[in-house]
Amino acid sequence: MTRLPHGRPSDGAPADAAGELCGRGEETALLDELLAQARDGTGGALVLWGEPGVGKSALLRYVHDRAADFVRLSHSATRPEADLAHAGLHGLLRPVTDRIESPTTARAAALRAALGEGGGPVDRLAVGAAVLSLLCELAERQPVLVVVDDGQWLDEATGLCLGIVARRARAHPVVVVLADHSDPATRPWQGLAAVRVDALTDESARRLLATAAPLADEATVRKMIRETGGNPLALHELAALGGDFDETEYHRQRRSPRVGPRLRRAFRAAIEALSPPARLLTVLAAAEEHGDRLTVQRAGRASGAGDAAWDEVADAGLLRVVGDRVLFRHPVVSRAVYEGCGGAARRQAHRVLAATMPDGAEERAWHLAAMAHDRDENVARLLERTADRSRIRGGTETAARSLWRAAELSPAPIDASRRLAGAARAFWDAGCAATAERLLDDAERLAPGPHIARRSGGLRGVIEFTRGRPEVAHHYLTTDMNHVSDPGAVLELGTLALRAAWSAGRGDLQDGALELLRELDVAVSPGTPAWWRGDGPADATPAAMCAADEADVRARATIPPLLPPAPLGLAWGIDGPMGDVLRRRIPHLRRRDDPPRLAVALAQAAMLDNVAGRWAEAESSAVEGLRLARDMGADHIASHCRTSLGWLAAARGDERTVAEATARSLETSLPQGVRALSAAAHWSRGMASLFHERPEEALDSLMRLTEPGHGAEHPTFALLAALDTTEAAVRLGRHDLADERVRALEAWARRTGAPWARLAGYVTRALVGGAGAEDAFRAALDVPGARSHPLLHARAQLLYGEWLRRGRRRIDARVQIGGAIEVFDRLGAEPLHRRARREQDLTGPPGGRGSPGTGATHRLTAQEERVARLAAERLTNREIAVQLRISHRTVGHHLGNVFAKLGINTRTELNCVDACPEPP
Predict the structure, then answer these.
(1) Per-residue pLDDT tens digits for 41-81
(2) Percent of the chain with pLDDT over 90
(3) Nearest partner of 845 among 907, 912, 894, judged by Cα
């Protein structure tokens, strides 16, 4: 009795960490059913067929291992024995030849003759009957399992014999399972039950890669699945060849990644079985790569591959023609054919293909490059022209590969360096950040000089900014502005330098970049936008300033680099038009397949949607931007997306997400000096604490935004968080700090006219108290455009309602608090919603809980009522004790009685006592 090998299967086992076959539930169920029927006395047969590497051998091993109580006979056919009659039968029955009957019987004599142990002619029908008889005899004691792998290489005699056995095995507990590359309808087992084993689904492929490549990130996993088409063996071998998948090598190749040796051997055997013209035709189709039938036909005719060769490869199932397309049956087949045919055959194929194309054809340059033995400037120039045309059409990755290959063929180092720099920029624009950075490094090592900045469009500074090193980025960006000749590129580098300076919280660097832009005279009319100038006309009214800025935004809608970072745009009150610009631009960037700019736009849009109350859209944009940023290795953009998610989590009351998002941001932003991101993280933490009514903890976080020298000090975020800082400070009695924030907000509101700043300035003025508090609240709610910031407007209503309730104006308070509740409920701002509901309860109608009409307060003693009134004013027990000249323990005793008599649980509910007459 023989067993299949228990090492790694020859056909790519799609198994997960638990040893289960991934995505093969239907196939394994059929095999289990066959075994169960055999145990009940009924035999059966099944043919598993599909392309090499799809997992047929894994299924054979599965059924073999599940049949431990069977007599198991197995054989793997090989191509060298395909022409030896009954060679497969000899390998299959060798373990049980001692069970063959005496040679005097006709069946035994026929079988021994087939196995080479007797003389005389071989009757194939008699051999089939003898094998069936032998298996039935073995099955009298225990069921029999026959497993044959690589049935396409079985000799014809063995194939016919097994067909006879399989079709007659049902009456006996004999199971026959065969694996083949081809459709069984054209094989000796025609008419048997058959299952085509297809490639794995994406989900199953992910499960397999979790074991085969556990360190691969999400982007790598997607690439591996896409390039292998879900072929299990290709996935295994790609993981083994590349470890964690070599992204640079992947981007260098025009075709799919390399295939492994086992898959290559499997396809090579199929190719070698073809006639020379048919073999040449498959190589031509693989080398042509685009599946252009007319091109392959012309090249084939020029090489002597005519209609007969086409019929042969079609019959072999390697190629199929669909309209004007020539398609291989699976994505990995083309690569396996190309790699397995040998260098001479590949060069010959490219030479023939190039000869069939006109001189100006782009593909001709690639075929000439593929057959080049040494550096060739003429071919390099052809590839460079091909790259220029590809970029015009939007094919940035194609252009990048063309320039890379042109650099490899360039004799002069300066030309190679220049072309590598161009390839780096094209790869960057295509979202291939790691490859872009590597090529830029190569270009600088090969021949450093200003040509690199000129050809790459100042890519070094762009990369440093994206990686979250704003001060380093600022240095490269301002330096390269002098080397780039295109005014549009200079403008982009200059505004990115302004962004870098703003991110670092360095006003001096921002002034330097602004001055350089002015010197180079590239600012767009009517001049540099106000948000970068850092000033405004002293005599301009807020409305005029806001209108001018909106006009600036719309005028620069076609020049996205001129737009400010989202927090700065919000501070200046141009978040509305800026959001409109981004919402129009994002679909355009998706169509252009421009991941770097798309990720930035999504990160910007997420924050603007947050403040505009479009929280579902904000979350979607931030998640998508985060995924793109991770794929590109753009930590800075990823942190911006996490910032938006952290702010959103704070508003929703999800403190766990706030902690996780801000911790991730601060991990990188503090060491790298990205103060904008550090400030955003502390703002989110302060919001979360404040909304959960922990003002001391909130103020501790928010104070970092104005603390000199701290890594989170940032003037823009200090302004945006001024309302939160003021509220926390007022609750803690820090009126000096509150007054400072009020003055800063009011000055900014006068300077910019931003609706949010005017609203927040009025609210903070009301919070610090004074005779004009109500006028300030009313003015805040009446600010034009204030409702475009629904969370901020609802908070103003809540704070006004709380102020009215404390002034015993409960009906007015209910109106404001009710409006706030409606907005909080719609947005999903859970902590503020709870707070508003609690306040609303305290403004209940007469006869409600806590209302003087209930009579509950009349059950209080005079001293209990005095204690309750002072506690409602937020005095501590010791402060109450000093005023009433009793001990603080007596105060605690009285408060316990008050809570019990009024049916309340917290001091905040003691405000109901205010409505009752004071005790004598």
Answers:
(1) 999 999 998 888 888 889 999 999 999 999 999 998 887 78
(2) 33
(3) 912
Distances from the Cα of 471 to the Cαs of 389, 465, 497, 531, in angstroms? 36, 8, 9, 20
Integer Cα distance of 867 and 708 in angstroms: 43
CA–CA separation, 452 and 419 (whole Å): 9
Q: How confident is the model at residue 905 (pLDDT cuts 50, 70, 90)?
A: low
113 pLDDT tier (thresholds 50, 70, 90): confident
Q: Tell me phi and psi for residue 201, to 5 degrees.
A: -70, 165
Please state, in angstroms and rounded to a whole number, the distance separating the CA atoms of residues 792 and 797: 9
Question: What does the H/E/C string look like for 147-190?
Answer: EEECHHHCCHHHHHHHHHHHHHHHHCCEEEEEEECCCHHHCCCC
Q: How far apart are CA 850 and CA 911, in angstroms?
A: 8
853 confidence band (pLDDT: 50, 70, 90): very low
pLDDT digits (tens, 9 = 90+) for 315-347: 877 788 888 888 886 667 777 788 777 788 888
The pLDDT, as a whole number, for residue 107 is 67
Answer yes or no: are the C-beta atoms of 241 and 258 closer than 8 Å: yes
Element spanning 364, H or E: helix 362-370
* DSSP calls for 588-607: HHHHHT-HHHHHHHHHHHHH
* 846 pLDDT above the threshold of 50: no
With tokens 């076609």, the residue in question is 558
Residue 315: count other Cβ atoms within 10 Å of its Cβ: 12
Mean pLDDT value across residues 581-591: 88
Dihedrals phi, psi of 72, to nearest 5 degrees: -110, 120
Signed CA dihedral, 217, 221, 224, 227: sign only? negative
- For residue 230, name the pLDDT band (cuts at 50, 70, 90): confident
Three-state secondary-structure class, residue 693:
coil
- Whole-angstrom Cα distance, residue 636 to residue 248? 22
Give the span between the Cα atoms of 912 and 896, in whole angstroms: 16
| Cβ–Cβ < 8 Å for 710, 740 | no
Pairing of strands 319-322, 325-328: antiparallel
Q: Residues 6 or more apart from 476 whose CB is under 8 A from it?
A: 458, 460, 461, 464
The CA distances from residue 126 to 133, 751, 855, in Å, are 10, 103, 109
Residue 423's Cα: distance from chain center in Å? 24
- Taking CA atoms, 398 is separated from 149, 395, 439, in Å, by 42, 5, 15
